[in-house]
Design brief:
single chain, 132 residues, alpha+beta, Arc Repressor Mutant, subunit A, three-stranded antiparallel beta sheet, three-stranded mixed beta sheet, 4 helices, binds zinc ion
C-alpha cells in the first residue's frame, strides 16, 4: 500500500502537506520524534512547513491511528510511529525513548478501575538515570 492509500484508508484526504509528512513517517521504520524534529527534517528535505501545520498534521495522524503520542512527563509531546501496544524506557537526560515489547512487561497487581470506567490500556515508562 502506498502512502496515499494509507492516508485514504485512515480517512484522511492526501493533501500535499500530509503527503510530505507521510513520506517521512510511514516508511516502515519506527521512530519517536517531536513536532520540532519533524519540522527540521521537512525543512532540510527542501520543503517547508510551519510548526503549526506540522502539529496540525500530527494531530490528524494521531486521531486516525497512524501514529501515537507517548504520554511522558516531559513538556514536549513525543510521537511514535509504532502504533502496536508497547511500553518505553525513557532516558531522562536525553529525552530518548526506547521501545519495550508488550510481552516483556507483566503487571501482577493493579488497582480496581473506578466505577463507570474500563481499563483502556496500561503504558509503562521506565525512567532511566545513569548511575555513578
Ligand atoms: Zn515506542
Amino acid at each position: 500500500m502506498n502512502n496515499k492509500e494509507k492516508l485514504r484508508n485512515a480517512g484522511l484526504r492526501p493533501t500535499k502537506q500530509r503527503m510530505i509528512v507521510a513520506d517521512i513517517l510511514l516508511n516502515g521504520f519506527n521512530r519517536h520524534f517531536t513536532a520540532e524534529n519533524l519540522q527540521d527534517e521537512i525543512n532540510s528535505s527542501g520543503n517547508s512547513m510551519s510548526i503549526a501545520t506540522v502539529y496540525n498534521c500530527l494531530k490528524k495522524f494521531k486521531n486516525c491511528g497512524l501514529i501515537k503520542q507517548v504520554e511522558t512527563s516531559k513538556d514536549t509531546a513525543i510521537f511514535d510511529t509504532n502504533t502496536d501496544y508497547h511500553h518505553h524506557f525513557l532516558n531522562e537526560e536525553t529525552g530518548e525513548l526506547i521501545d519495550i515489547e508488550n510481552e516483556e512487561i507483566s503487571l501482577h497487581k493493579i488497582p480496581e478501575i473506578p466505577q463507570g470506567y474500563l481499563n483502556n490500556g496500561i503504558e509503562v515508562i521506565i525512567k532511566l538515570k545513569r548511575h555513578n
